[in-house]
Amino acid sequence: MKHVGQLKTNGTKVVVVNRTLPGDAFSSLVIDRDSLRPLEHDVIVPLLESADGQAAFEFGHILGRHRMPLEDSPNLDAADKANSMQGISVLEHLHTSGQLLKQPTENVLMTEDGADAVQLDKLNEMIAEQKGVRVEGLAISADTTASGDSRKTEAKLMLSRAEKLDHQANVFRERAYELDEDTRPKKGRPKKQSD
Q1: For residue 9, what pLDDT is reported?
Q2: How many CB atoms lie within 10 A of CB 136?
Q3: Where are the domains of the chain?
Q4: Cα–Cα dist 26/125, whole Å
């Protein structure tokens, strides 16, 4: 499986979010797999194992495209933001919760299934050579879809979020009507007021 490895210094199992960083080609961003809470694990691992996750050059792009389901979070700030039109991406959630760890690429061993472990810095050098670029050229760039248009992806996410919010509003409205039937709007024209 792509994007998985471990740290040479202590053997910690990690998911590699970004293999290099802009302006720092010899550092990477990783997630400690064992530090993930159950909800985070249930969101991140299926994304990692998905066809999109395995096809992605940088797993960080996938994490940036998917929303973290924190609408019912006990953290009111997180719940408010999750319920907003934009929501919270998995990547943003990991960043704000301090779970993105910067690691030297020489300390990350990539442990893809069926292959010998290889240091991330050496793997980056091989990939850069194949692409005909310097290692610095592998750094993350603006997130785009396969067609190169991130605006379409953002529009789809906003429409999906709007549908969920609309459904949630209808559920709340019906619950309010059940609690107090007088709050239910009356059908027909309002009666004329006599002067």
Answers
A1: 92
A2: 15
A3: 4-143, 148-180
A4: 10
Asked if 21 contacts 138 with a C-beta cutoff of 8 angstroms, the reply is no
Query: 143: closest CA among 25, 16, 18?
Result: 18
Other C-beta atoms lying within 10 Å of the C-beta of residue 126: 10
Phi and psi, residue 110, nearest 5°:
-80, 130
d(CA 72, CA 137): 40
List the structure tokens of 118. 């290889």
Residues recorded for the chain: 195
Q: Which two tokens stand for residue 162?
A: 């709007």
- 92's tokens: 């943003």
> Are the beta carbons of 103 and 32 closer than 8 angstroms?
no
- Cα–Cα distance measured from residue 52 to residue 90, given in angstroms and rounded to the nearest whole number: 15
Strands, E, within 19-156: which ranges? 27-32, 101-104, 108-110, 118-119
**pTM for this prediction:** 0.64
Low-confidence ranges of the chain (pLDDT < 50): 142-149
The confidence score (pLDDT) of residue 46 equals: 93
- Among 102, 86, 85, CA closest to 94: 102
Rounded-to-integer distance, Cα 8 and Cα 26, Å = 15
Q: For residue 172, give the 3-state DSSP assignment.
A: helix
Token pair of 91 as six digits:
């990547």
Other Cβ atoms closer than 10 A to 31: 22
Helix, strand, or coil (residue 119): strand
